[in-house]
Fold each of these.
Amino acid sequence: MLLDVRNLPRNGFLSPLGMISLLVLSAAILLRAQTSTQSQPAVPTAQTPATAPAISTASSPQSGIPGSTTSPFGTPSQRSGLSIVVLDPAHGGTDPGARGTGGIRESEIVLDMAVQVRRALELQGFQVVQTRQGNDNPSFDDRSARANAQRGAVFVTLHISSTGLPGTVRVYVSSELPPLTDSKGLIPWDRAQAPFLSLSRKFGDLVQGLLAQRFKGSPPTAQAATVRQLRTTAAPAIAVEISSIVVDDRAQLDHMGQGVADAIAEGAAAFRPMYVVPSVPGVAP
C-alpha cells in the first residue's frame, strides 16, 4: 500500500494535497473494515496490509474530508493544532495479549484503563476516538487508518508488559525508518510514521517525564523501538506500556490507571502548542 508524498516539503510535513490523499486512503480502509464486519462472521483478523494502488493527489476529492474546512477557492485548508486523541486499547477479541498467572488478560485491563484515559483527555478539552469499544480485535491497519483519517490528531496505544519492574511505565516511539521516498516519490504504508518521528519523540518525552514523576523507577524519557502499530500511523504516535502482567493481584495494575491517564492527558495538553499542521507547503511548525 503506497502513499503519494511528492508534495511532502523538506521540513517533514505532508502538504495539504498529500494529506488529503492520506485521508482518502485511510477512509477507504475504514469503510472496507466496517463493511467486512457487517457482512462476515467473526474470525481472527489478519495483521498484514491489504494491497492498494498508489493514490494520485491530482484526483483526490476536494471536500468531504473529516476535520477539513473549505477555503473561498473551494479547496480544503488544514486545521492547525491538536484537538483529537486516537486511543487504542491493544489486542482484544481472539488476541488477549499478555496473560498473568491469575487469569489476568492484557486486552481486558487496557480496555478498562481506556475509560480513565478518555475521561482525563476530555477534561483537557480533547475529542477522543477509540479504535475499539469492546472485546473485538481490529487489524493493525484498521487501527492506524482510524488515526490517519483524522486531522490534528495524535495516536496513543495502551499495553501491559509481560516484563519490567512492576509499578513502572515506559513510553515507546517508533525507531528510525528507512528513507521516505523511492524514485517515484511514493512512500509505503508501513513507513507512514516517518514524517512524524520528531513530533512523536517530543510527545513521548512529555508523557514519559510525567509518568516518571508518578511511578518511581520509570525512565525519564521515551525509548525507541520497532513497534508495529506505530510505523503505519501518519500522526505523532506513542505506545504506553505498563509493567507488568505478572503481578499477583490485578488491583495493583488497576490502581495505576488514574496516574497513567493523567500523565497522558497532561502530556497531550503540553504537546498541543508544539503540533501545528502547516496550511501551506514549506511552512515550519
Amino acid sequence: MRITFSQSGGFVGLPRGCVIDSSALPAAERDELESLVAQSGLDASWERSEPSGRDRRRYEIAIEEDGRTVRVCCDDGCLPDTAKPLVAFLGSRARTQPLVPAARWGRFEGKVVAEWDDGGRDMTLVQPFAYVDPRQERWEATAGAVVNGASIPRPFWSVIGGPFSGRFRNASVVHDVACMVRDRPWRQVHRMFYEACRCGRVAVVKAKTMYYAVYHFGPRWRVEERRTLVAGRETVERVVHDETPLAPSAAEVEAITRYFARHDVPDEAIPTLAIGPEERPALPDDGRE
C-alpha cells in the first residue's frame, strides 16, 4: 500500500505532505496504518468542501493498493470522523513542502475582475487576465471580453458547482475566451483548460473529469481558408465551422463522474477514453483540426 498525503490551508497555510509505502514500515506501524485505512471509510474517490471554508485545512489523500487508486480531497469540515485517525497518523509524518508545486502547470497573470451584465448571465472583464501554460504559450483574456461559462458543457455544472465557482474560475475565463476566439485548434484549447485547472489547484480527480467533459462534449471547430480572386488579387477568408457535439445525457454525466472517482486515468489517455452507460466509440485522432 502506498499513500500520498498533502495538507494545505489553515491560518498558517504552509503546505505539508508525505508519501508512505507501507512495505517499508516496521511491522507494528504497517499494521496500524492498514487498520486505520480499513476503518477510514475512504473506499472511493470524492471531493467536497464547505462553502465558507477559506481558513480551513484542506487534505488530499491518494491510497494506492492492488492496482487501484482512491483519491479524496476535502477540508476539515467535511472530513469524516472515521478518517480523522488516519489523517492524524499521516499528519504526524508530514513535512513542510515548498510553495511551488503548481509551477509545472504554468502561471496566471493578473486577477479576474469582471462586471455582471444586465441579463445576469454574462460577465464582461474589466481588467486583462492571462494564463501562461507550461510551454510558455500565452492565453489572453482581454479587458472587454465577455464570458459566461458556456465553454464547459452545462450538464457538468452540477459536478463543479458552476464554471466561475471556486478554483475553476481562472481556467474557465481563459477557456471561454479561447473557445470564442477560435484561433487555435480545439484540442489544444481543451488541453490548456486542464493545465489551467491544475495550475489553479483544482483537485486532480475533478480536473481530469472536466478535461474529459470539455474534450468530448465541449466546443469544437474546423477552420477553412477560402481563397478567391477580387479584382485580380487573391484574398483569403477564414471560415470557422462549428462542430460541437451533442450535450451528454444525465446518465452519461453520472457514468463519467463515477468512472473518474474510481480510476486513476493518465491525462494523456483522456482524449481517446470512451465512457458511458453504453460504450462510446473512441475518437479518431488523425491530426486534423
Amino acid sequence: MLSLLLTLWLCASVGAPAASAQGSTSTASTAGSTSTQDRSVSLKQLPGNILGDQKDVWLFPVKLVHGEHWWPTIGVLGVTAGLVASDAHTAPPFRTTDDFSGYNRVLSGTNSAALIAAVPAVIYGVGWLRKDSYAQDSALLAAEAVADGFLLDIPLKAITARRQPLSYTGNGPYTDSFFNGSHNPFHSGGFFSDHAMAATAVAAVLAHRYRQHRWVPFLAYGLAGAISFSRITTSNHFPGDVFFGGAMGFVIARYVVLPIH
C-alpha cells in the first residue's frame, strides 16, 4: 500500500510536463489555474531560508499586536481549545475499541513517518534524474516547511508536556494531560502532533505547486488527513493536538515558506 501511495505522489510530481518545463520561476498557463512565482530554494539556500522562516514564525505575535491576522488566529485557537475541552469525551471511544486495528497497522507511527519523508525524497530524486528543477524545488520547499514545523514543535512539547491518550486506561479522566507528561520534546505524543504537521505541510506545498492538476490537492490533503486521523485512532494524540499540528503545517507551508521573501 505504501508503494502505491508513493507512486501516486510521484505521478503528481513528474506528470506535469507543462509545469516542470517552466522551471521554478514559471507561471502556469493551464486553464483554470492561477500561478504565482514561489520562493527561490536550493540545497545551499535551505539553511538560510529556514533561519529566516523561524524569525517570521517567532515574531508572529508582533503582527497580532499590530492588529493583523486576528480572525484566523482566533479561529485556530478557538477550535483547538474546544477540542482540548472535549478530551474526556473524544478520547475514550478510541481507547476502548479495536475497530481501527487494521488501519493503525497500515498507518502506524513508523509507516506514516516513512511515507512523509519518502514523498519529498522521491520527488527530489526523480527531479534530479530528469533534470526537472521544478520538482526538485517542490521537494525542497516541502522539506523546509516540515523543518520549520519541527523547530516550532520542539519547545512547545518541552513546555506543555502533554500526556498521550494511551497513557490512560478506559475512560480517563484525561483532564490532567498538560504538564504531567514527558518534558522531553522527542518523546512520543505531546502538543502538537508532528505527524499531522509534517503531512499537512508536505500536502500544502505539493497541492499549491501542482494545483493545475485538480486531483493533486484532493490526493495530497486526503493522504495528510488519513495520516493525521491515525494519530487519534492509535491514541498517540488527542484530537486537539492533531488539529493544531495540521493547522501549523498548513500555515507555515502556505504563508511562511512559499511566499517570496
Amino acid sequence: MGLALVLPLAAYTLAASAQPSAKNKGAASAAPAASSAPTVAPPTASAPAAPTAVTVDMSAKPADSAMNGATYAVKLRDLEQRVDELKDQIRRSHTRLALLSDTIIGGGTAGSRASVDFKNEMSSAFLLTRALFVLDGQIQYNRTDDSGALADQKDIPIYTGSVPPGDHTIQVGLTFQGNGYGVFSYLRGYKFEVKSSHSFTAIEGKSLTVSATAYEKGGVTTALEQRPTIDWHEKIEPLTLGASGAASAGAAPAPPTGAGGGSK
C-alpha cells in the first residue's frame, strides 16, 4: 500500500516540475518572434505633399471636325478677304517700286502734286446739305447748307497742292435730304448719310488728280437708302516744272552770250 501512495506522488512531482519549463520555453519562443517584427518610423515634416487632384470631365465630347455649309461659307469669305488684302499690298508695292525708280532717275527734285475734286451727279430727289472732306487727317472742305446752294454746285474743288510722295487717304462724309413734291413729298422725311474713303499714292515727278463722284446706283426697284454712293477715279500726269516750282529752285540761269568778255 505504501508503494501505491508513492507512485502517484512521484508522478505529481514530475508534472509540477515540467510546467515552469514549458512556460519558459513558450516565452523564449515568443521573444524572437517579437524582435523580428519590422520597425515603422513616424512621419517627419519633410514628407512630400499630396499630388494635386486632376478633374476630368468624362461627359465632354470632342469637337466635331466636320465642316458644315455655313462654316465653309465663312471660311471662304475670310479667305477671299485675305486675298484682296494681299492684292492691295502687291499693288502698293509696285507703286512704291515705281516711285523709287522715278526718284532715282529724276534725282528726286521734281516733287509731287495732288488735286482732289468732287462731282455731284445726284438727281433732284437728293438735296446735298453737308459735305466734309478730310485729307490725311486734315479737314480740307466742310460746309453745311440747307438752302440748296450747296446742292447746286455740281463741281467743287477740294484741294490742290504739293504732297509728299507716298500713300495718302481721303475721307468723305455727305448728307443728303430727301426732296420731292406732290406724290413724292414723302421723300422730305428721309435723310441719307454717305461715307467713303479712298487711298492713293503720290509719285515723285507726277501730278495726280483724284475725283470723287456722288451718283445714284441701281434703278427704280433699288431701295432709296441704297442708291446714294461715291465712285473714285484717278488720273496721273507728268509734273511740269512750272507746276512743281522746280524751275525757281534749280540752278541759276546761264550768263548771256559774250558775258565772259567783259571790259578790258
